[in-house]
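Intended use. Records like the one below are meant for learning the mapping from a protein sequence to its folded structure. Do not use them to infer anything beyond what is encoded.
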Amino acid sequence: MKFDVTKLSWVDFALVLVLLIGVVRGRKRGMSEELLDLLKWLASLVVASMFYQPLGDYFEAHSPFSHLFCYVAVYLVTVLLIRLIFSMLKRKVGEKLVGSDLFGSAEYYLGVGAGLVRYACVTLMVLALLNSRLYSPEEIEKSKKTQAENFGTISFPTFAGIQEQVFAKSILGRSIKQHFDSVLIKPTPAEKKGLERSGSVKKREQVIDEVLKPR
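Structure written out for the chain above:
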């Protein structure tokens, strides 16, 4: 089947550009300098994608926050913790690793691949966050109507619109959605939740009220 370059969107070109920047950076830094950063972003991608949902579900059940908030918060906090761990590790062994000749003549060839994979991991994590919010057709239509009422024929980018450009209208975005869905945050609708909780929290409140009730 013949590839039609006219079907490429600005998103495809942007993603390719990011990966090319990773190749150039990896070639410049070499594998010794890339190694810890590569492992850091790989660990961030894998660990965050594994634990954001179970931990997010737990915190949602025991807090006034929505699933969407908990998923994104757990994801970002996990990434932050891994960055802190690798920051401490880099201070201890980073200079020794860069000063060694561990990879020999393959130093910069391996650096190219490491830079490519590192930037791919960062890209997937950005796309994971972009994928997190689920918009209903009613919400999308309401947003379009609001823009039309306020700005007429002028339209501004919306989060839902960017999602559509990336995951529906770009070749690479559709491929990522299809083949790397497991590392993306599950599309989740926004929920309005007050401080008054149902379930376990509400039961605890009922127990306390019962204990304090005058006899």
